[in-house]
Amino acid sequence: MTSRITINTLYDMKSKGEKIVSLTAYDYPFAKIADESGVHVILVGDSVGMVVQGDAHTLAVTMDEMVYHTRIVARAAQHAMVVADMPFMSYQTSVGTALANAGRFLKEAGAAAVKLEGGATVCSTIKAMTDVGIPVQAHIGLLPQSVHQMGGYRVQRDAERLLSDARSVEAAGAFSVVLEGIPADIAREITLALSIPTIGIGAGSHCDGQILVMHDILGMTDRRLPKFVKQYASLRLQAAEGIKAYVQDVQNNAFPTETHSY
Ligand code: KIV
User: Fold this and answer.
1) Domain ranges (residues) in the chain
2) Which one of 7, 75, 121, 244 is CB 3.0 to 4.6 Å from 175, fit for a cystine?
3) Using CA positions, which residue lies closest to atom 4 of ligand 1?
């Protein structure tokens, strides 16, 4: 794969029934691996707050932190489309603030699009962004930034509301919508109803694509993984083995040897 993925590529993939693969990344080396491994869309998620910063939620992540992570991910991605996640309170206070913050991701960080959480309530913001040429990925269902409002990370089952939110964000101009933590049959109904691609996370197999958190699929975290995650590697264990071996070598005078010396 050589050409750059754009929103048109994603529309095309939906129309051909080709699955869109999305994954989070937060730094240069892992973004490069994702890009070279065929991931179509790299999301610089505000999940950075949990899997990199060690917080219990995503609420404390700042715009400056997201711009920093997006810039180093965008530097690595030669093929994948890079989407920057708008952190909590960077788009909720006014449309003007939302536009200014979204603009930073494209101007300063090299993202091709932004993502924000919410359905009908954020449609005026989505419209304002797309009107000035900022592609927006919407995110409905379980909204991690509303964890306190939802009373925890809970599967969302109100089919009527979910479908209406999905239709609203599409009408407002979103190029895609993440469906998080919703039953598979509702995600299927939404996917069939929309002309823009749906990207599922904990939303079953009928979405146009899937997204997961890099640290979860590679086994880099010690947090309990949600049911919807499939773990494909155990990097945390491998890293611990490597570091323990280094500690032992230094303590036993097995490193450095002549070969590592000048
Ligand atoms: O922040 C994030 O990583 C996300 C997804 C996994 C959808 O919003």
Assistant:
1) 7-231, 235-262
2) 7
3) 45
